[in-house]
Write a structure and sequence with these properties.
The chain has helices spanning 16-31, 37-43, and strands spanning 5-12, 56-59, 67-71, 76-80, 91-96. By secondary structure, the chain is α+β, with helices and mostly antiparallel strands.
Length: 97
């Protein structure tokens, strides 16, 4: 049996960058215009309006940039250096799947 470990990072909805792009998203939704490329890229989603429903925004972590494989004789997993996490990350969720 194999088990996989997943790490998800989140920024709170009070993050200034999130609030800036959320305002743009709201205006675009209300007026029916397309999102500017910068805001679309920020939300990096095919359904960016779902971000308005969330209290925090999921942040993608990159292996070998934000976390690394860890192993020893008795255990294995991931190692995270908190200094390497993207700005604004205030919560990590570690799940087994």
């Amino acid at each position: 049996m194999s088990v996989s470990l997943h790490i998800t990072a989140f920024t709170p909805d009070t993050d200034s960058e999130f609030q800036k792009h959320k305002k743009v998203l709201m205006v675009c939704k209300e007026t029916g215009v397309s999102l500017p490329p910068e805001t679309a890229e920020y939300f990096d989603s095919t359904t960016p309006y779902d971000a308005l429903l969330d209290e925090r925004l999921e942040v993608e972590l990159e292996k070998d940039k934000h976390y690394r494989d860890y192993w020893s004789d008795t255990e294995d997993g991931y190692e995270l250096d908190l200094n390497d996490l993207p700005d604004g990350v205030s919560k990590l969720r570690i799940t087994l799947g």
